[in-house]
Amino acid sequence: MTSGQIAAFHALLTPAGQHLLAEADAAELHADPLAAATRLRRAALEGPDPAAAPAGGQPVEPAQLVNAALTQARLRGRAREKFGAAADRMYFTPAGLEQATRGAVARYRAHRFAAAAAVPDGATVGDLCCGIGADLLALARAGLPVEGVDLDPLTVAVATANVEALGLGAAARVREGDAARTPPGRYAAVLCDPARRGRRGRIFDPDAYAPPWRTVLDLARGAAAACVKAAPGLPHELVPEDAAAEWISVDGEVKETALWFGPLRGAPRQATLLRGSAPAGTADAAGPPDRATLVADPGLGDPPLAAPGRYLYEPDGAVVRAHLVAEAAAEVGGALLDPHIAYITADRLVPTPFCRAYEVLDVLPFSLKRLRAVLRERRVGIVTIKKRGSAVDVERLRRDLRLSGPNALVVVLTRVGDRPICLLCSEVSAP
């Protein structure tokens, strides 16, 4: 991180920078980068002094300020999916936005902290590796005093600006520091979100996180209560015995694994499905999002097996990641098609938030020629292809089907034992 980038960001917070950022945001100038740069350079010359140094710091040239404004405008556009309307007042870095907790998840987690009474009155939550401050802001909104810690000075500046922009300075603060060196007992509770992206992209090995996995767990155990955020694919064998594991999805997409320690622990293993990914107009809401939680039942045993019935249930990804398919099958009184594949079948339609339901119209041994013929007979021109336990290349299959027609179907590719099959389905809504 260069001093020039930090100076440019601080300059963005001055009247000159805010003038340019408003121009960029209002016109959505990022749609035409050349025109955007030209217009903003003109606005920089016509607006407040663009070279004025913020608070006596390093002077910033107009071109640097224009680039900073354009970058923020583009990032705000991308951030609306995670943060809704609040994104238009927030600040980001590319890496910070990529790893930032989605608004619905941050609100849910903050209210879990608050509801557990794990933080004594007046005590502070430590948000270690706070990034641009998504969880920090949610914790503050939930009424918890919180201090964010991050090693990167630009990230600290961005998180601080977000605290001020959303009017949360009375509850939240941010400091530059090495989270890995946090002494035990400094905070009443901690949230630790280690960096899971490097120069080459996502990091899948928890030991390569920053801080590494063992250090993260030590930080969690150094507080009376803690939550650790990890990737959705965290292996079950890496979940320590003193933690409860929760796989979280938003609108059907698995977002993270959360490990809970101390009084924040709930069921040892669960899947939580959140609805609504911060739609416009609700991003500043202090309340938790709608949710449904499925908890492991140790006495349940293996689910039964059955041939395809009238309905097929596709468990949410968080349910699958949490190894709770048997619990989902019990919810609908269903059975598995195959003991190793997360598809549930049943003869009746049962309302459940944990699965998508499809009516099975036909079951075929998998054959391209046969499948194409049946779809053409049904005048199907639009197919949604889903697969589990199948080696078929979905995009190649879509091309090879060469379909046309007014109707739409869902094609599910799977197997029963060693026998590949396909199910022709229509999606239904439970009554």
From TrEMBL:
Keywords: Methyltransferase, Transferase. Residues 127-192 form the Methyltransferase domain. Signal peptide: none annotated. GO terms for molecular function: methyltransferase activity. GO terms for biological process: methylation. Pfam families: Methyltransf_25, Thump_like. Residues 277-299 are annotated as: Disordered. This is SAM-dependent methyltransferase. It comes from the Bacteria. Residues 356-426 form the THUMP-like domain. Gene3D superfamilies: Vaccinia Virus protein VP39. SUPFAM superfamilies: S-adenosyl-L-methionine-dependent methyltransferases.
